[in-house]
Design a protein that fits this description.
Length: 292
């Protein structure tokens, strides 16, 4: 049964993690929050209905949709409810709100309004995939979904080709083969990775191997929710980095918006070489292109 907002008292925004597959993984507090919230903002109200039925929860509060298409327009309405003292529960289709899902705008607005924000921790596809990947997990970065256009996707991957931390991505099954092929091109065909499919569900599968091998496997078609974990770049000494690699790193930075002078200085500091050595490599490459 929902509780009435206390007059004059500030409300609370609750971000609730939901199961990524197996409904039995729902955190115990989730049922209590679903039953007690004044407002439930759900990415998909039909999926919310199925979840509450599975948990045996009777929702007493108002249910509204909150998804990518209406997130900007609905945020002020929810902030107003919070300001009036409502307990607003935010849930997405799976996992934690705002992690590649709606939620960031509402959290930012609530923080700006000095409204308390708390969370019901729950299952995470990012952490589950990392744990199952067999790759280093002491340092990692989450990159979310890559751009759909091939050129933009490859450019984004090249930006992190030298990232030492383990990388985690979400991807749609129908784009998986192209994404893995682009990763093999940007990171090297032998870079280790793991494709985690249908985590916690009946047909859960973790496929591990070099990127080129995984791309070949995915070419036959893959179904389900996908999380890709990729090994970080190996450490290189200045002696291992030739002129072509120096030029590539400068170009990646230029494509990201840095001026050439700044890019050269940054690459020189990155690899431990004099700026002149990087500058000479860039000039030589430019002269070679002109003479080609």
């Amino acid at each position: 049964m929902s509780t009435s907002p206390a007059a004059g008292a500030p409300g609370v925004l609750v971000l609730a993690g939901t199961p990524i597959g197996d409904v039995a993984d729902a955190p115990p507090r989730l049922a209590a929050e679903l039953a007690g919230a004044d407002v439930i903002a759900a990415e998909d109200t039909r999926r919310l209905r199925r979840l509450t039925q599975a948990l045996g929860v009777q929702v007493g509060g108002r249910v509204v949709s909150y998804f990518e298409g209406n997130e900007s327009a609905r945020t002020p309405e929810l902030v107003e409810a919070l300001a009036r003292g409502a307990r607003v529960l935010l849930v997405t289709d799976a996992g934690m709100p705002s992690v590649s899902d709606p939620g960031y705008r509402l959290v930012a607005a609530a923080v700006e309004g000095d409204i308390k924000v708390t969370a019901v921790p729950g299952p995470s596809a990012v952490l589950t995939a990392l744990a199952l990947s067999g790759l280093p997990v002491d340092r990692f970065c989450f990159e979310g979904f890559l751009p759909r256009k091939a050129g933009e996707r490859l450019s984004r991957l090249r930006e992190v080709a030298d990232e030492r931390r383990t990388l985690v991505y979400f991807e749609a099954p129908h784009r998986l083969d192209d994404t893995l092929a682009a990763m093999a091109e940007a990171f090297g065909s032998g870079r280790r990775a793991a494709v985690c499919r249908e985590l916690t569900k009946t047909y859960e599968e973790v496929r591990r191997g070099p990127l080129a091998e995984l791309a070949e496997w995915a070419a036959d078609g893959v179904r389900g929710e996908i999380t890709v974990v990729v090994e970080g770049a190996p450490e290189k000494s200045p002696d291992d980095i030739g002129p072509d690699e120096l030029v590539r790193r400068v170009r990646v930075r230029e494509e990201a918006g840095e001026r050439r002078k700044e890019a050269i200085a940054a690459v020189a500091a990155e690899v431990g070489l004099p700026k002149r050595a990087v500058f000479d490599a860039v000039v030589a490459a430019k002269n070679a292109e002109r003479g080609a």
